[in-house]
């Protein structure tokens, strides 16, 4: 909360916060100096300050590599020391890292970092373990693809419309198949890779990319699908190292060439297809 008095482990947005920075911040993959960070925060409704005071409700933990820390026992700048002192005194000050600040700039919630002491006596900000909810979003619902008015186009998109219709039909069939097993199929959570469908079985999380084979070469579509789902799985395993993730490639029909099944297995991908969805 922007009052700085209570915290439920998540910073919902920047609006209403009085914020300061420990140094430059890696924003969306680019190192950004403090004055620019302050302007970005101000654009999102925050009140940026240069120094720590009792007004501060949020500290953004940036680069300290070239800074001299105030407390030699801690990997803290003076602002983090002050934030820790404030917390111990009963006034909670939220702390986010560069990734959290980037999420807040996109109007997405960010985890408030805990402050923990290591065996060596140093205290560092530590993010809470990512939750499954940060992978799977809301319930996935099938939709009907719309037709484009051909009079307004200079290209013939009929083939694309047909492929889109097949894609959505395959998604719909997958929903029916999994719901028949009592599985709740989800879309991707905000900030997660844009996989087509996701679901969980106990501690296992499945992320699926759906590919139609209509209107395109089969090998091109399957190669594209394999690359996409491996990329999604790699991103999620990096950000959620404690989760058991299973990439799934879903096709509209059984592929003509049987080699794709063995290739998928060797890459750790479950390959399945409509209408029966084997191995799911």
Provide a short characterization of the protein structure.
The chain is of the alpha/beta class and 280 residues long. It is built from 6 helices and 16 strands. It has 2 domains: 10-128, Rossmann fold, CATH 3.40.50.10190; 134-273, Trna Endonuclease, Chain: A, domain 1.
Provide a descriptive summary of the structure in words.
InterPro entries: BRCT_dom_sf. This protein is an alpha/beta fold and 280 residues long. The protein folds into two domains: 10-128, 3-Layer(aba) Sandwich (Rossmann fold); 134-273, Trna Endonuclease, Chain: A, domain 1 (3-Layer(aba) Sandwich), CATH 3.40.1350. 29% of the residues lie in helices and 22% in strands. The strands form six sheets. Strands 5-2-6-7 form a four-stranded parallel beta sheet, with helices on both faces. Strands 13-14-15-16 form a four-stranded mixed beta sheet. The longest helix is centred in the middle third of the chain and has 22 residues, at 158-179.
Strand content: 15-25%
Strand order of the largest sheet: 5-2-6-7
Biggest sheet overview: 4 strands, parallel
CATH architecture of the largest domain: 3-Layer(aba) Sandwich
Helical content class:
25-40%
Q: Catalogue the unreliable spans.
A: 1-5, 65-76, 145-158
From the helix content, strand content and strand pairing, which structural class follows? alpha/beta
Order of helices and strands: EEEEHEEHEHEEEEHEEEHEHE
Round the mean pLDDT to the nearest integer and report it. Answer: 81
Number of strands: 16
